[in-house]
Request: fold
Amino acid sequence: MTACHTEPHGSSPDIDPSEPIPTIALVGRPNVGKSTLFARATGRYAESSNVSGTTIHVERRRVEVDGRPAWLVDLPGTVSLGMSVADGVPFWSLLLDARPDAFLVVADAGDLGRHLPLGLACRDLGLPVVLAANLADEAAGRGISIDTGRLRQLLLAPVHRTSGRTGLGVAAALSDAARLGRRVVAVRAGTVAPRSTIPASVYPPDVEAAISGRVRESAVTHSLGAAAAGEARWELGDIVGAGVISARGAATLELGWIVDAARWRVAERWAAEVTTVRAEAARPLAVRLAAWSVARGRASRCSSRWCSGSSSR
Ligand SMILES: Nc1nc2c(ncn2[C@@H]2O[C@H](COP(=O)(O)OP(=O)(O)O)[C@@H](O)[C@H]2O)c(=O)[nH]1
Ligand SMILES: [Mg+2]
Reply:
């Protein structure tokens, strides 16, 4: 891979030290390959293991993407943004502490229905999302293919087939995330006009109405954080005030499982629409072997008296 590498000795001479650096956060369920992808992008291995949840701290490394610097942040795996990761701290608090400018959501290409809800949740926060349909090598081996173009249309975000193991698509996914993150940095700095941060509605009208209602309430009371803060380190109101996420994003965090339930339904529908499983590969090996041995038996009988056109029967 040539697009990104570590900079162990600080800035390279070509990099403008005053250039604001975007932070890209890797988000995904446990064991989906975040740390492997992180290692591939930074040239060094963090903790990488088959055991769920082994990334217990937040790893942040400077990388060079398309000749420009970016921060890449590896986080613990999570199932939802509201899930508690340690000491009652919700994942979103850890995530937003990293001050991300873009999310690289790492999903299992072979199991999108269970991985897309997290992508939708990140998208709802109002920051750009790039989806890495990872473990693509494994999915291909199982005869699974994904219509990335269609998924891109549905998610309104770049989608790449990736494999942290082989390097497939990693540079392209990072390139998109850094490009979108740089734009957010520029908007925060006031050098670029913001685009609308409200994503297209994908949830049923009652859920969308609940989100809008919560946004309106928070605008009036300025106390959005009160209900959700709980054990969190940050209050949501502060986070919105600091421009880290949109008011809509905070409302979706506050509504928690109400939006999550809708995300699961949307994810299931989208996964079914974009995933194709080759019929032959979808059949378990044992079934294929059984079919093969029956066919073989039939063939050998066919060459004997039963199948000859001039059967004596
Ligand atoms: N086949 C395949 N295995 C992978 C890939 N990426 C990671 N793995 C394996 O999946 C397991 C979990 O990877 P890890 O990076 O620790 O996942 P994390 O929990 O999301 O950080 C490890 O055994 C990796 O070697 C990939 O692209 N293809
Ligand atoms: Mg990890």
About this structure: The chain has one domain: 23-276. The beta strands are 23-28, 59-65, 68-74, 84-86, 89-90, 102-108, 129-134, 144-146, 159-161, 275-277. Residues 23-276 form a domain with the Rossmann fold fold (CATH 3.40.50.300).
